[in-house]
Amino acid sequence: MTSTIPADLPLPGAKTTQGAVERADEGNITRRSKRRLTSRGATIASLVIAILWTIPTFGLFVTSLRPQEEITRSGWWEVFLRWDLTLENYQTVLANEDLSRSFINSIVITLPATVAPLVVAALAAYAFAWIDFKGKNTLFILVFALQIVPIQMTLVPLLTLFFRGLHTAGGTLFEGFQGAGIYTQVWIAHTIFALPLAIFLLHNFISEIPGEVIEAARVDGAGHGQIFLRIVLPLTVPAIASFAIFQFLWVWNDLLVALIFASGEASPITRTLAELTGQFGRTAYLLPAGAFIAMIVPLIVFFALQRYFVRGLLAGSTKG
């Protein structure tokens, strides 16, 4: 007795074979995509740009290790002819009490000036993305347009506003926390300057969240607060971390805002480094060592949040 297998039924093992074929096709597509997106010329160009970008930093590092006489007499590249390196510059800089105090000031300034705009921007971005209110689009365009306003144009009006109202109000508001009043101006200034870009970037990320997820939460009875804290905020961590790195580096390396709003006991490390040259630039040879000491904290922050930074950059580049 013989039996026949209908033509429309798959043969045993056909499903496995079909899956293997599909996986092979996907692998071929991936390899073809990589070949299209990469080339030997692009790789070589990237390496050349990276090397050219690194040379000034390497030169600054070598200069920080050279004696004062060598720094003032010749360029850093001559270290390959006379290998004379020392740590005296770092010892001198670390012994500077003003630099130690300003290093702490930079941390005290940078952390709130990074967290505050992120909190406000995340809430505003969620409102622009998922809450309907009158004039939403117009207001969002105005917020976006604030990015083109140069910071230099806002310094004098903002400084006038601080001295007329917020300066006294800030001192009264923070009088329970000793010393916080001297940082109020610079905190508010950095928060104001960071909000337009932060709202724009976070809005683009939050608006990409599938609407079915938000609607399902609303059907379950969740309000805007619960949706933001339990759904939107966890999904937005990569974007928040990415902007946090940019904002941290911007505030830490800022000199313009520090010269206007942070003075005296609140001077950050950038302002102290600018004053480290001394009268007529007599101690300018200490600047390279001070610059590399100032780089320690930003490097730690970047490498600690690097994985979130990469995820935030890649988020939204592909769908599915």
Give the SSE layout.
Layout: H1 14-37, H2 40-64, H3 68-73, H4 88-94, H5 97-130, H6 136-145, H7 151-173, H8 184-206, H9 211-219, H10 224-235, H11 237-252, H12 256-261, H13 269-274, H14 287-294, H15 296-304, H16 306-314
Helix pairs in contact: 2-14, 5-8, 5-11, 6-8, 7-8, 8-11, 11-16
Could you explain the architecture of this structure?
The chain is mostly helical. It has 2 domains: 37-86, no CATH class; 95-314, MetI-like fold. The protein is built from 16 helices and no strands. The chain has helices at 14-37, 40-64, 68-73, 88-94, 97-130, 136-145, 151-173, 184-206, 211-219, 224-235, 237-252, 256-261, 269-274, 287-294, 296-304, 306-314. The longest helix has 34 residues, at 97-130. The relative contact order is 0.11. Mean pLDDT is 79; it is low at 1-16, 169-179 and 316-320.
Oligomer: single chain
- Structural category is mainly alpha
Main β-sheet, in a few words? none
What's the total count of β strands?
0
Quickly give the CATH architecture of the largest domain.
Orthogonal Bundle
CATH class of the largest domain: Mainly Alpha
Helix content class = over 70%
* CATH topological fold name of the largest domain: MetI-like fold
Cα distance, first to last residue? 51 Å
Q: Which band does the percent of strand residues land in?
A: under 5%
Supply the number of structural domains. 2
H/I helix tally = 16
Q: What is the mean predicted local confidence, pLDDT?
A: 79
- The CATH homologous superfamily name of the largest domain equals MetI-like
Give the low-confidence spans.
Answer: 1-16, 169-179, 316-320
Kindly provide the radius of gyration, computed on alpha-carbon positions and rounded to a whole number of angstroms.
28 Å
H/E topology pattern: HHHHHHHHHHHHHHHH
